[in-house]
Amino acid sequence: MNTETIAEELSSLVGNKNILIDYDSRMIYAKDRTQNLIPDPSLIVFPRSESQIISIVQWANHTRTALVPSGGRTGYSGGAVAQSKEVVVSFDKMNHILAYNSEDQTVRCQPGVITKNLQNFALENNLYYPVDFASSGSSQIGGNIATNAGGIKVIRYGLTRNWVYGLNVVTGNGDLLHLNKGLIKNASGYDLRHLFIGSEGTLGIITEAIIKLSTLPSESKVALLGVQEKNTMVEILNIYRKDLQVTAFEFFSEAALKHVMCESNISHPFKRAMPFYILLEYESSEFNDEVFLGLTESCINSSSINDAIISQNMAQYKYLWSLRENISMSLSKYLPYKYDISVMPSKIPVFIEEIEDLLNKTYPDFEIIWFGHIGDGNLHLNILKPVELKGSEFFEICDEMSDAIYSLVNYYNGSISAEHGIGLLKKKFLRYTKNDVEIGYMREIKKIFDKNNIMNPGKIFDDS
Amino acid sequence: MKVLVAIKRVIDPYVKIRVKQDHSGVETQNVKMAMNPFDEIAVEEAIRLKEKGLVEEVIVVSIGDKSVQETLRTGLALGADSAIHVETDQLFSSLLIAKILKQMVQKTGSQLIILGKQAIDSDNAQTGSMLAALLEWPLASFASKIMLQGDKCQVTCEVDGGLQTVELTLPAVITTDLRLNTPRYASLPNIMKAKTKPLTVIPFNSFDISPNMDMHTIDVSPPPVRKAGIKVASVQELVEKLRHEAKVLL
User: Fold this and answer.
1) What is the tally of structural domains in chain B?
2) Alpha-carbon gap, residue A12 to A72, rounded angstroms
3) Per-residue 3-state assignment (H helix, E strand, C coil) for chain B
4) Average pLDDT of chain B?
5) Which of A46, A68, A156, A237 lies 20 to 30 Å from B29 when distance is taken between CA atoms?
6) Is residue B113 part of a domain?
7) Which of A309, A313, A317 to mutate to test the interface with B (most CBs of B within 10 A)?
8) Mean pLDDT across the stretch A387-393?
9) What's the burial of A190, exposed, middle or buried (CB within 10 Å: 0-12/13-18/19+)?
């Protein structure tokens, strides 16, 4: 079907004001934060209601047109990229918080609600939506659910999955399902809600979510700890975790910090640079502050920590966090090849060492940037493109490198994608995390919900 | 030589200010407090002078209830040598504060006083100049650069439309502006050291100063709520509204 016909037919469903067809919009809405994929959608449709979504999906089944659901497009694995004339379904116009239930501390929201807006809405009601990450100002709750987003507070509050108490979905077949309806307990057979969480838009479209909110945490303090050896980090985490409510435990290398300092034009937080830094956030109180100081002092005395600075006010709190949150942005101009791998936290020290050995031996010229969520066993390893290499050449070499790195992931029973998803970029490596039998079951599940394979085809695995 | 730095505990500048229901002031219960940012710059400058070997001792002083001791400890953690807490539950005007500080200057034998140019809560910007007047010492206000040599001090001051460089002979008073320096972070070893540095508490009533209030707060009210914006359908309508309603176009 040509684009004009598609536009005409969709206009009759949603109105022509809710369709964009121009080149610029197509380039913007059919792409996420991946940099080496070229978008080519047929057009963008902006449904305004659940019923419009149902009619779009039914139309797609009739016409066998592929749909790509698109949220805030902050993903790093191409899950929301449309490359083969698909229709992109954007939820920008379904961005309302529909209801707030103060007794159950839940909100009912449309998929296009920006994560930050949900966080702010919770705060206005003296509650807290704890899933948070650097891109929360752009990402949408529907996309968060479809990727089971993690972020910087996972160590304390878990993933998006923990906060989704109900989901309305339109399956690829066009059926509307009301899943779990906000219940805390519900032992009535398969919980299909959890299949849709993290499904990357391959099973259907999320049309509404019931999100649980948390009570407000007490004021938190953040400290930046300088460490000499990255293999002591897990040990350090366990020391703090025994006596303190740790809400974030992030690490990054001096190389990562250098890029942030250069990009944001700020000076070094420490007098003497250290190879690695830990950003530790904990729930503060007079008592906890004393505990924190005591633990840190003993770590310094035992030389596992070299130096530490502690936020004394909100400006410093925000500044210290910005050092961690601005890493991805400061690297983007180097066309980094991004790994988002996870292993059991206890394996992290030996795992990092083996990867470094491998990279130093095989690709000594590549700049390696380490950062990540130590407490979650999640490492964001970024390899920067050397200036003399062309983008395509670089990514070719990286694919080779990936086989070696993912073999290590496989050996340590880890995952090739901790929180970014598989999308397009990582599907050829999926077998390093899941075997053929398991992938076979996943394919069968997709067939049940999406007989005509119209929902985000080619994502997670190739069409069979 | 001793340097005295006066610091004030204020609501953290990142906190959204709420006016009390009875309009008697702003809400400070369960609100995050911090050192006045300009005073933080003053502490930093004093410590830098000490690190350069130009002064021997940095004393921080703060006036208020027991909670200001936390702010004083921050000053000690940044590198001050000792702290003085003038204890009172009352909120004083700039003049009363200046009178107390004058006596503290005399008690400590300080030759240089550095203060923030203003506190971000009351925004008066008076204490420094009043203190200089009471002491009959020279004053350099809104400093963005301080060069100390012997008993001479060259200070670059931010004035309307430019910079003015003045030379003072010590003893003197200096108030700090934003561009003077970037305060350092409190490091853990220094926070631990700060716990054992001397912090002297002096009750306000031991001063020979009448606590009679020379200023009374009658009413504190929030700014008027901003009117919601409107959407216009066309550029023409926008121009129309700018001309006739907002009256910003002729």
Assistant:
1) 1
2) 26
3) CEEEEECCEEECCCCCCCECCCCCCECCCCCCEEECHHHHHHHHHHHHHHHCCCCCEEEEEEEECCCHHHHHHHHHHHCCCEEEEEECCCCCCHHHHHHHHHHHHHHHCCCEEEEECCCCCCCCCCHHHHHHHHHCCCEEEEEEEEEEECCEEEEEEEECCEEEEEEEECCEEEEECHHHCCCCCEEHHHHHHHCCCCEEEEEHHHCCCCCCCCCCCCCCCCCCCCCCCCCCCCHHHHHHHHHHCCCCCC
4) 93
5) A156
6) yes
7) A313
8) 87
9) exposed
CATH classification of the domain holding B183: 3.40.50.620
Q: Which residues contact B43 (CB under 8 A, 6 or more apart)?
A: B5, B7, B35, B58, B60, B75, B78, B79, B80, B183
Residue B118: give the domain boundaries: 2-222
What stretch of H or E contains A212?
Answer: strand A204-212
Does A222 contact chain B (CB < 8 Å)?
Answer: no
- Beta-carbon separation of A309 and B186 below 8 A: yes
B248 domain residue, yes or no:
no
User: Which residues contact residue A433 at a Cβ distance below 8 angstroms, ignoring those fewer than 6 apart?
Assistant: A406, A409, A410, A414, A415, A416, A417
Q: B10 to chain A, minimum CA–CA distance in Å?
A: 11
**Which of A328, A262, A321 lies closest to A33 in space, CA to CA?**
A328
Q: Of B74, B185, B192, which is closest to A297 when you measure between CB atoms?
A: B192
Cis-peptide, bond into residue B203, ω within 30° of zero: no
Is the pLDDT assigned to residue A84 strictly greater than 90? yes
Residue in the structure block whose two tokens are 């300088």? A226
Q: How many CB atoms lie within 10 A of CB A442?
A: 16
Q: Which of A308, A313, A314 sits opposite B187 (nearest CB)?
A: A308
pLDDT, mean of residues A104-112: 97
Amino acid at B186: A
pLDDT in tens, A35-68: 788 999 999 999 999 999 999 999 999 999 999 9
What single letter denotes the amino acid at residue A319?
Y
Q: Which two tokens stand for residue B97?
A: 């504060």
Sort strands B112-116 and B2-6 into parallel, antiparallel or unpaired.
Answer: parallel
Question: Interface pTM (ipTM) of the complex?
Answer: 0.78
Q: What is the CA radius of gyration of chain A?
A: 23
Alpha carbons B73 and B194: distance in angstroms, whole number: 6
What digits encode the pLDDT tens for the residues A243-255? 999 999 999 999 9
pTM, 2 dp: 0.83
The reply to whether B230 falls in a domain is no
User: Does residue B243 fall inside a structural domain?
Assistant: no
% of chain A with per-residue pLDDT over 70: 100
The one-letter amino acid at A313: N
Whether residue B170 contacts residue B139, with contact meaning beta carbons closer than 8 Å, is answered with no
Question: At B228, is the pLDDT very low, low, confident or very high (cuts 50, 70, 90)?
Answer: confident
* Pairs of CB atoms within 8 A across A/B: 52
* Cβ–Cβ gap A314/B15 under 8 Å: yes
Looking only at the bridges linking them, the beta strands covering A19-20 and A106-109 are unpaired
CA distance A341 to A451: 32
**CA A318 from centre of chain:** 21
Distances (CA, A) of A341 to A410, A423, B185: 11, 15, 33
Inter-chain residue contact A269 with B192, CB threshold 8 Å:
no
Which residue from B minimizes the CA distance to A320?
A: B185
φ and ψ at residue A244, rounded to 5 degrees: -135, 150
Task: Please count the CA atoms within 13 angstroms of the CA of A131 that sit on its side-chain side.
Answer: 27
